[in-house]
Amino acid sequence: MPHLPDPTGRHEVGVTSVYLNDTSRPDPWMSDVDSRELMVSLFYPTASTAGPVKKYLTPAESRALLADGGITTVPPDALSTVRTNAVVDARPSGRPRSRPLVVLSPGFKKPRATLSSIAEDLASHGYVVAVVDHTYENVVTTFPDGRVTDCAACGQYDLPFWRKLSRGRAADVSFVLDELTGPHPRWRGAHLIDPRHIAMGGHSVGGASTIDAMLADHRIRAGVDIDGTLDAPIPDSGLDRPFMFLGRANTYTPGTPGGAAESWEQSWPRLTGWRRWLVVAGMEHASFTDIGVLAEQFGLDLGADTGGDRGAAITRRYVRAFFDLHLRGERQPLLERPSSRFPEVSVVG
């Protein structure tokens, strides 16, 4: 059976889905929708192992994602059979205000499920993790009442489009933080969240939009861009909170042709707080997400020299080290120098 890698922490992992509706703003992609609806998966530590584990995707979601990727060599519902490691609606565990919160944003057209292995692993180490589906920017989002939305944002892509996308995601994330840490939280485990220790990360445009979110919302204390080209450099005013770039060596090594590395180079001097730039040899864009793991299990070649499980291990370990350092104050030698355990990873800056 296809499966996600096991979490590495001591906690069992629970998960629940939360529907949120921001009535203060219209949907940016649908002129006839006067509010912004979002689905969020919350992963968290639990002491309970009783109950069903989370379904990775529904059959309809699986069909849509595989069709978007042009994949016809596996059954259309294959991703609905993936075994995850999180127990649905398990009781959250922990002391009040003891759990740091990490918000994750997926790549364009990708469902929130594709960051599940990172989220499960962080939760197993004591984090609450909110993974956001950005409605109409994903091939398919399923709502509790059975409605299914497609990718209204898909089409022609120019710089104004990417700027709109990134800023809209920043607004989505701020609203999610309001709903999880405000006076009337929308999740029964919200009392566990420490609102002083919040961070964000994302893959692809989700990583790039982390900068917009941090500039717009000072509750976000630290951020990670995982393999995401920036659509605009950081403003001259700079970003003074911790930030990490983590990307493919063949794309984000300084001086690499194509513009992606240049987008990081332009912003690098404007990161005025703690900063790190890491590149990983042998990885492809999808290697940093569940897609790298699952493609290998389904016999699909993404062109990566680094195997799917290894790619997931590298991503999860470095991302967690960053959050452990900046949300928990735990020193991380892994981020200070090259590691013999992870020779694929080079420290650029």
Would you write up a description of this structure?
The chain is of the alpha/beta class and 349 residues long. The chain has helices spanning 59-68, 116-124, 159-181, 205-216, 249-252, 260-267, 290-297, 308-328, and strands at 12-22, 36-46, 53-55, 83-88, 99-105, 128-133, 141-142, 148-149, 193-203, 220-226, 243-248, 275-280, 345-347. It has an eleven-stranded mixed beta sheet with strand order 3-4-1-2-6-5-9-10-11-12-13. A two-stranded antiparallel sheet has the order 7-8. Strand 5, helix 2 and strand 6 form a beta-alpha-beta unit. The longest helix has 23 residues, at 159-181. It starts with 11 loop residues before the first strand and ends with a strand. The relative contact order is 0.13. The mean pLDDT is 96.
Q: What topology emerges from the helices and strands here?
A:
Layout: E1 12-22, E2 36-46, E3 53-55, H1 59-68, E4 83-88, E5 99-105, H2 116-124, E6 128-133, E7 141-142, E8 148-149, H3 159-181, E9 193-203, H4 205-216, E10 220-226, E11 243-248, H5 249-252, H6 260-267, E12 275-280, H7 290-297, H8 308-328, E13 345-347
Parallel strand pairs: 1-4, 5-6, 5-9, 9-10, 10-11, 11-12
Antiparallel strand pairs: 1-2, 2-6, 3-4, 7-8, 12-13
Helix pairs in contact: 2-8, 3-4, 7-8
